[in-house]
Amino acid sequence: MSKARKTALIIIAVLIFIPLIMSVVITVVNDNTAADLEKTLVSLPLPENTVFVESLSKAGKLVGNGNGMQYYGAMLISSELSLKELKEYYGEYDCEVYRIDYPRIDIDHSDIRFKTEPFPDNAYMVEMWGESPSWLFAEFDIRGH
């Protein structure tokens, strides 16, 4: 095999494998960004009379139209506190709190649900949205389109 032919094959292989490797790296980074939101939520101190039940995270185009990645973390808690008290408490951490009666989370483009069974009484969902670590990871993940 000639040197020119070997060089051409190497160039073709590189052109094929770089996009494949980048797509895997981008997916892993975006999933880790969402997982970091989940870790942040779980690390928050719980208010009194509140029990942690479960947490989850998701990366992708979750709500709205157009292109772009979104990063989501949520935790399920059971609390004797009122929704107002929980909103005040978690508002200091830039989190939203919702009372929920079933495991499915209502997000436009994704089927996300808690796995806990039986579903707890006095259940609340605490959620947090995050941002991309870089435009590269937001623009080149196929799940954001």
Structural notes for this entry:
The strands form 2 sheets. Strands 1-2-6-3 form a 4-stranded antiparallel β-sheet. Strands 4-5 form a two-stranded antiparallel sheet. Helix content is 38%, strand content 28%. It contains 3 helices and 6 strands. The longest helix has 41 residues, at 3-43. With 145 residues, it is an alpha+beta fold. A hairpin with a 2-residue loop joins strand 4 (104-107) and strand 5.
**Could you give the distance between the termini?**
43 Å
User: Which radius of gyration do the C-alpha atoms yield?
Assistant: 21 Å
Please bin the fraction of helical residues: 25-40%
Structural class: alpha+beta
Give the number of helices: 3
Detail the poorly predicted runs. none
Strand count: 6
Strand order of the largest sheet: 1-2-6-3
Largest sheet: 4 strands, antiparallel
Task: Provide the β-strand percentage band.
Answer: 25-35%
If you average the pLDDT, what whole number results? 90
What letter string, H or E per element, gives the SSE order?
HEEHEEEEH
Tell the overall outline.
Answer: elongated
Short description:
With 145 residues, the chain is α+β, with helices and mostly antiparallel strands. Helices cover 38% and strands 28% of the residues.
Present the secondary structure layout:
Blueprint: H1 3-43, E1 50-60, E2 70-79, H2 83-91, E3 96-99, E4 104-107, E5 110-113, E6 123-130, H3 135-139
Antiparallel strand pairs: 1-2, 2-6, 3-6, 4-5
Properties at a glance:
single chain, 145 residues, alpha+beta, 4-stranded antiparallel sheet, two-stranded antiparallel ribbon, 3 helices, elongated
